[in-house]
């Protein structure tokens, strides 16, 4: 399925170019914050359903930023259209997660090398077995080098992309934790599947906003200020 027109029911750029590299925060207001804080000559390319999207430059390189909403269905819809309709080649999710491991703390940065999931999104591909959702190594390697240069410690490993925020099974997270899952979030596996199927690059960079096991949380005000390290790493991938 492809669209002939350079717009979709969900993204209407009105002639504004969408860059080959795009940052994808879940919250569209975080996209606006990134633009106002970091980008030059930014132009808005989307406002449909208030899912704000912008294209500008960062250190002379063209880059776009757009919100994706919450959950795999929303992320998968927007990332599919960005890839197949608008030609995006590098998709970097920047979001929040709930830590599961004892050695992790609030505001830690996580690179999702892999994304396990309780979703059945993969069924559409009719694969004859289980599929492992993994990041683009090129983006992951560059992100790790950038973090090292900035002196920012990061966790690299497997995350959980869950369809369930309020789980009736109170033992679920402990089971994932025992398998070494670093943290839980709700979008990455869908992004990685879309990217793999299309042959493009994807990476998720997360900041720990709460610790599920220790029942620790950050405030919305703290998150806006503390998440800039994650944003600055992602911007260097353009």
From TrEMBL:
Q: What class of enzyme is it?
A: transferase
Gene Ontology cellular component annotations, sorted alphabetically: cytosol
Q: Which residues bind a purine D-ribonucleoside?
A: 10, 185-187, 209-210
Where in the chain is the site Important for catalytic activity? 223
- The answer to whether the entry has keyword Amino-acid biosynthesis is no
Q: Where does phosphate bind?
A: 26, 30, 49, 93-96
Q: Which residues form the active site?
A: 210 (proton donor)
Q: Pfam families in the record, alphabetically?
A: PNP_UDP_1 (PF01048)
Reaction catalyzed: a purine D-ribonucleoside + phosphate = a purine nucleobase + alpha-D-ribose 1-phosphate; uridine + phosphate = alpha-D-ribose 1-phosphate + uracil; a purine 2'-deoxy-D-ribonucleoside + phosphate = a purine nucleobase + 2-deoxy-alpha-D-ribose 1-phosphate
Q: Which UniProt keywords apply?
A: Glycosyltransferase, Transferase
GO process terms (BP): purine nucleoside catabolic process
Write out the GO MF terms. purine-nucleoside phosphorylase activity; uridine phosphorylase activity
**Which EC number(s) does the record attach to this protein?**
2.4.2.1
Nucleoside phosphorylase domain residues: 22-228
Q: How does this protein assemble?
A: Homohexamer; trimer of homodimers.
Q: What does the sequence similarity comment in the record state about its family?
A: Belongs to the PNP/UDP phosphorylase family.
| Biological role stated in the UniProt entry | Catalyzes the reversible phosphorolytic breakdown of the N-glycosidic bond in the beta-(deoxy)ribonucleoside molecules, with the formation of the corresponding free purine bases and pentose-1-phosphate.
PANTHER family (alphabetical) = FI09636P-RELATED, URIDINE PHOSPHORYLASE
Protein name (Swiss-Prot/TrEMBL): Purine nucleoside phosphorylase DeoD-type
Record organism? Mesobacillus zeae
């Amino acid at each position: 399925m492809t669209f002939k027109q350079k717009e979709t029911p969900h993204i209407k750029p009105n002639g504004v170019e969408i860059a080959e590299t795009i940052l994808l925060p879940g919250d569209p207001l975080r996209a606006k914050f990134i633009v106002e804080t970091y980008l030059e000559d930014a132009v808005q390319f989307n406002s449909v359903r208030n899912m704000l999207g912008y294209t500008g430059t960062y250190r002379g390189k063209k880059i776009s930023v757009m919100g994706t909403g919450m959950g795999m269905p929303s992320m998968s819809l927007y990332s599919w259209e960005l890839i197949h309709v608008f030609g995006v080649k590098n998709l970097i999710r920047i979001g929040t997660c709930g830590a599961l491991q004892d050695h992790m703390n609030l505001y830690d940065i996580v690179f999702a090398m892999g994304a396990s999931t309780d979703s059945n999104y993969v069924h559409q591909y009719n694969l004859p077995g289980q599929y492992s959702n993994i990041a683009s190594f090129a983006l992951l390697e560059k992100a790790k080098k950038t973090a090292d240069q900035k002196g920012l410690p990061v966790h690299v490993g497997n995350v959980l992309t869950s369809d369930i925020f309020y789980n009736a099974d109170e033992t679920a997270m402990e089971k994932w934790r025992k398998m070494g899952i670093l943290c839980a979030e709700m979008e990455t596996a869908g992004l990685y599947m879309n990217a793999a199927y299309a042959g493009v690059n994807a990476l998720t960079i997360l900041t720990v906003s709460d610790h599920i096991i220790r029942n620790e949380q950050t405030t919305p005000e703290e998150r806006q200020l503390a998440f800039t390290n994650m944003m600055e790493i992602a911007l260097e991938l353009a």
